[in-house]
Amino acid sequence: MNKFTVFLADLTHDGALLSSNVFPLSIGLIAAYLAKHWPYKLDLDVQLFKYPHDFSSSLEKNKPHVIGFANYSWNFHLSYAYATQIKARWPDTLIVFGGPNYGVTNEEIDIFWETYPNIDVHIIKEGEEAFFQLIKAFKNNNCNVNKIKTSDIILSNCHYLNDGQVVSGPLLPRLNFSDLPSPYLMGLMDKFFDNKLVPMIHTTRGCPFSCAFCTEGAAYFNKVSQRTDDLNDELTYIAKKVIGSRDLFITDANFGMFKQDIAKSKVIAKCQKDLAYPENVYVSTGKNQKDRVVEVVQTLNGAITMAASLQSTDETVLRNVSRSNISIEKLSEVGLRANQAEAGTYSELILGLPGDTVSAHRQSLKDTVDSGFDNIRMYQLIMLPQTELNTPHNRRKYQMQTMHRIMPRSLGKYRLFNKTFAAVESEEILVAHSTLSFDSYIVCREMDLMVEILHNGNIYTELQGLCKTLNLSWFEFIMRVFEKRKKYDAKFSLLFEDFRAGMISRLWPDQASLNREVIQNIDCVLNDDRGTNEISTAKATAFFSLFTIINHIVFNEMCNWLEELKL
Predict the structure, then answer these.
(1) Which of 24, 254, 401, 498 suits a disulfide with 432, CB 3.0-4.6 Å?
(2) pTM of the model
C-alpha cells in the first residue's frame, strides 16, 4: 500500500431507525488531530464511517493498517462483531477501541479483556493524543502488533494484554480546546451531510460536578476546557452544507452555565439570523447559574429547551450519588421564567438511585410536575461503565439487583466478507436495591407511564390550567387517576397490565442469555412491531387506540374531584 490507512468507525445500528442519528464527532476529532500532527512523508489516508454497509464495502476493497472503533453502549457489540471478523482475516491489522463503555476497577477491566480478546488496545479517557502516540509507536515498529505490546514502549492512556496480564499506560494530561482542530473545517465530516444525520459539535469539555451515575463524574473530567475560537467558522460551514433538518446537537454537559456561554450563544444567534441555522439546538443546559442559562435560552430565540436535570429531589438519594440540586422554590422560579420566555422546558429523573423508594420517587415527580416543567424525562438507572455507582463496591453496598434489556433500536443483521451476522446492544438496569423492591420498582414504572400519558406533551393543558387557577395540584390529580387505574374501563386497566407484562418479559438475567436468545431469533425481534421501549409503546397505544376512553376517564375524574372539594 502506498498510503498509511486508518479506518475510524463510530457505527450505528441502522434497521428501521438509526440507533444514533448524529454526526460521528468523536472519531472526527481523532482524525483531525492525527492529520494535523502526522509526522511522516508517507501519505496518511484516514476514512470515517458511521453506517455498517459503508464500512463493509470499504473493508472489502481495502485492508487498513489500523481500525479504530468508538466504544459506546449503543454500538459496542456491533463494533466487536466487526472486529472479530477483521481480526480473523487480518491478524496484523491493529484493532483499537476507545470510549466510555469500559470499566474503572481492576475487576471490571479483567472481565472485559477475558470476554473480548479480539481487541488489541483500548484507549481510556481522552483519545486524541493517545491515539496519535499509539499510531506513531505502531508505525515506528514496522506495523507489528505484537511488538508494540511486548516491548517497553510506553503507551499512554492505553490498556492492552501482554502475556495474559493487562498493561495500563500512564494518563496523559487533559487537552485544551486550542489543541483540537475542527474536523468540519478540515472537510472530514462532509460525507455525513446526507439528510439522515444531524450535525454535532462541542464547545466545552469536562464537567465540574462529581455525580456518581455519570461517566464525567470522575476527577479526571472536572477540569473544564472552553472553546475560544472558530465556532463561528464551524457553524457557518455546517449551515452551508446541511441538508434537510436544520437541527444541531451540542455535547456540552452544562451549556449556559459558564460566562463564556453568553458569547457562544450570541455566535449561534448570529448564525441563526444570517443563515437560518440552527432552528433547534439539542443540548443539556447548566445545572447551576440558572439566570445565565435563561439569558442564553432567550438569546437563541427558543431554539433550546431549558432543562433541570434533577435525577431526584430526595436528600438521601442525592447524598448517595454526590449530587446537589437547586431548591424546589428556585426550581419553580426557573420553570416560571422559562415559560415566560416561551422556551420549552423539561426535567430529568432517574428511578432506582441508591436510597430511592416509591414515596421518594413520587415526591420527585410531584416536585418537577408542580414546578411547571412541560415534560418529565423519566429514566431508569443504567449501570454505566466508568461510573462510581457501577463499581463492585457500590453494587454490594446498596445490594443492587440488575437485569438486562435490549437497547431501543440497537440491533440488526449485517454482512462482511460474504458472511451475515447479527448484533444486539443491551443495557444493564437496576431493578431493585436495599430500599426499593422489584415490585416497588414496577409500581414506580407504572407511575412514570401515567405521567407520560397525562402530563408530557401538554395534552391536557386546559385541565392543568384549571388546577392552577383553583390552586390545586395537577400532579395530585394525575396520582388520583393513577390510584384508580385498575377500576376504570377494562381496556385502560389492560394497558397497564400489558405494560407490566411487556416490561418483565423483556428482561434477561445477564448479557450472555440476552445475546443468545435475541440473535437466535433476530428476524422475529426485528419484525416485532411492539418495539423495545415499553413506555413509548404504551403511550402510542393510549393515544392511537384508547384516546376517547382516556378523555372520558380524565374529564369525569376531574368533575368528581371538584365535586368532592365542593368547587
Answers:
(1) 401
(2) 0.91
